[in-house]
Amino acid sequence: MKKDNNEQAVIDEITKSLNSLDAHPVHIPDASWFEAFVEDQQKKLRKTFIRDVCVFLFVALFILSGLLFTLFQMPYLFIVIQIASIIFVALYSFIRYRKQVAPE
Amino acid sequence: MNEAKIIKQAKKGDHLAFASLFQQHYPILYKYLLKVTMNPDLSEELAQETMAKAIEKLPLFKGKSKFSTWLISIATNKYIDYHRKEKREKDWISDEEAYRKLKWRMESYNEDWNDALTELGKLSEGVRIPIILKHYYGYSYDEIGEMMNISAGTVKSRVHNGLTAVREGLNILEKR
């Protein structure tokens, strides 16, 4: 009981001290600042999205053209790459699964 | 216009709706950050980072919680990330300076610098945040756990240990 009272006293003291921080004046920028900030962030997001899509397309085209080249010019290498990919995916999935179920 | 309608407009990309939402919630966000960081400059910086993240993630906001709760959750993670990245001696010194600056500002506004604030400032952010969220903002252990990506049990033990540390600190101060 005494412990509970002590804890409540500490909580009251903390609440009181945090209330005094609330008295600290807040400088709220005007509406035009918020509008400019949002527009600026939206522009940045659009730019990042376009950049990411370009990088994705570039990498995808590079991999696809490499695979098509091996398929028509070096079929044996194509088969080796396919087998290696399957083994890699299977091993990766197994390791991930084992990590998830491993006891802490 | 009510908040739900403004959020709907903002989700469509309306920058005026976003601006209105942020202007409305800025004081809550800043005051929360000031309490957890005890650093006015860092609070402003993190408030801006939080708003930037909110613009990016608003399509994921389902409206299950209040918008202010969602912003507080983003701000909490921004502050935790900031500490993860900046664990260096130099920043510890700048934290100390910011802390002294806040104390000086409070005193210049004739506000008492309470000893509990000093003790709260000594706690790590992982302990200070749950105490503030639980006992000042009234969030449940589950809600705090979701915000910080930790279990409710961990939150409970951090709050308990934090309160014990503050109590011991205050007792030592009283004995002096």
TrEMBL record, chain A:
Transmembrane segments: 49-70, 76-95
Organism expressing this protein natively: Cytobacillus horneckiae
This protein's UniProt keywords: Membrane, Transmembrane, Transmembrane helix
Top-level taxon in the UniProt lineage: Bacteria
UniProt-recorded name of the protein: YxlC family protein
Any Pfam family: DUF5345
From TrEMBL, chain B:
Keyword line: DNA-binding, Sigma factor, Transcription, Transcription regulation
Keyword DNA-binding: yes
Source organism of this protein record: Cytobacillus horneckiae
Keyword Transcription regulation assigned: yes
GO biological process entries: DNA-templated transcription initiation; response to stress
Superkingdom as given in the UniProt entry: Bacteria
Assigned protein family: Belongs to the sigma-70 factor family. ECF subfamily.
Pfam family of the protein (one): Sigma70_r2
Any one GO molecular function term: DNA binding
Segments forming a coiled coil: none
Residue ranges of domain RNA polymerase sigma factor 70 region 4 type in the record: 118-164
Positions of the RNA polymerase sigma-70 region domain: 21-88
Protein name: RNA polymerase sigma factor
